[in-house]
Amino acid sequence: MQMTGGARTDASPVALHEPAPASFQYALTGPVTTFDPRVTAVRGDLADIALAGRFFAPHYVAPQLRRCAPAITMLRAASAHDAQAVSQLITGEGFALLDSAGDWGWGYCLIDGYCGYVLLNDLVETAALPTHIVHARAALVFADASIKAPTLDLLPMGAQITVAGESACGKFWQTGTGFVSKRHARSLAEPGTDPAIFAMQLTGAPYLWGGRSGDGLDCSGLVQLVMALTGHNAPRDSDQQLEALGEFLADDAPLQRGDLVFFPGHVGIMADDTHLIHANAHWMQVVTEPLADVIARFPESTPQPVLARKRIG
Predict the structure, then answer these.
(1) What is the Cα–Cα distance from 249 to 180, expressed in whole angstroms?
(2) What is the second-level CATH architecture of the domain 195-311?
(3) Residue 37 to residues 6, 55, 222, 291: CA-CA distances in angstroms?
(4) What does the alpha-carbon distance between residue 75 and residue 209 come to, in Å, rounded to a whole number?
(5) N or C terminus of the chain: which is more exposed, having fewer CB within 10 Å?
(6) What is the pLDDT along the chain (313 residues), one digit of tens a residue?
(7) Which residues contact 254 (CB under 8 A, 6 or more apart)?
(8) What is the DSSP string of the chain?
(9) Rounded to whole angstroms, what are the CA distances from 9 to 48, 112, 244?
(10) Neighbour-count burial of 169, counting CB atoms closer than 10 A to its CB (0-12 exposed, 13-18 middle, 19+ buried)
């Protein structure tokens, strides 16, 4: 997914900040800099306290840490159910809450700093940090450590869970809400090494603008998700990813599995030297197809269908 605005060059997680003393005064000096509103928590009436001294706002607010409770919840451009989705939170992911009104809260995702509105009922206050991430297309949560036990939930790829221990049989992770197969979730401290294998597991997943989970995702959501599963913290949108991820390849350098290919408003990951895996609105799902076919679909008026090819170290 790519939206208008400047590109963010810092892909590191966003940290929460302690409130400043009441007597502290901020002063703005120098010219006002341009900023990317997607990842800069400044609104007309308030801003994140971490931005005090850089941007003017009537109020600066210390964020409150919350986590996503349901499998997924959408991050929206405005506080309304029919407002455009701009991104998504997945189970266990953190959200920095800066303001709440009615059913909605405004703030930013801790994964990538993306700003927006989310339903307050989908956020919980918890001190438990996620320890594992779902790396399969989906993971069932069982009421007991048995495949014959009732199922309580279905978690998409990318969901983060807090594991309390192993089941007695050694086949399940025990969480606060049930049991998850050890084949479906791995420790956050032990990421995978092949982003393409995770991307290919998502074949057939529906294209969803703003989506970034196994339930549905857009092009940059797919890349962000598989990068996370291999230990790389990627920004949200394709233009940001172009800035932040990997090293540029020469035009005549052969492509290989795991390379990223960037187009105007689009991105995909190579399955091999000639085939691209991507979530796209043409097929309305995640597919693997010849890179040449993707390039050929761009209109002749497009001066440069391939903006860049990059390799993750």
Answers:
(1) 40
(2) Alpha-Beta Complex (3.90)
(3) 8, 12, 22, 33
(4) 11
(5) C
(6) 544 333 333 333 334 444 444 445 555 555 456 899 999 999 999 999 999 999 999 999 999 999 999 999 999 999 999 999 999 999 999 999 999 999 999 999 999 999 999 999 999 998 789 999 999 999 999 999 999 999 999 999 999 999 999 999 999 999 999 999 999 999 999 999 999 999 999 999 999 999 999 999 999 999 999 999 999 999 999 999 999 999 999 999 999 999 999 999 999 999 999 999 999 999 999 999 999 999 999 999 999 999 999 999 8
(7) 273
(8) ---SSPPP---SPPPP-PPPPTT------SPPPP--TTS--B-SS-EEGGGTTTS--S-EE--EEEEE-SSEEEEESSSSTTSPEEEEEETT-EEEEEEEETTEEEEEETTT--EEEEEGGGEE---PPP-EEE-SSEEEEESSSSTTSPEEEEEETT-EE-EEEE-TTSSEEEESS-EEETTTEEETTS--S-HHHHHHHTTTPBB-TT-EETTEE-HHHHHHHHHHHTT----SSHHHHHHHSSEEPPTTSPP-TT-EEEETTEEEEESSSSEEEEEETTTTEEEEEEHHHHHHTS-TT-S-S--EEEE--
(9) 19, 11, 6
(10) exposed
| CA 12-36-221 angle, 5° bins | 55
Topology of the domain comprising 132-187: SH3 type barrels. (2.30.30)
Sequence spans of domains, the chain:
1-129, 132-187, 195-311
Amino acid at 212: R
Amino acid at 207: Y
The architecture that CATH gives domain 1-129 is Roll (2.30)
At which residue do the structure tokens 């086949």 appear? 171
pTM: 0.89
Q: Do domains 1-129 and 195-311 have the same CATH topology?
A: no
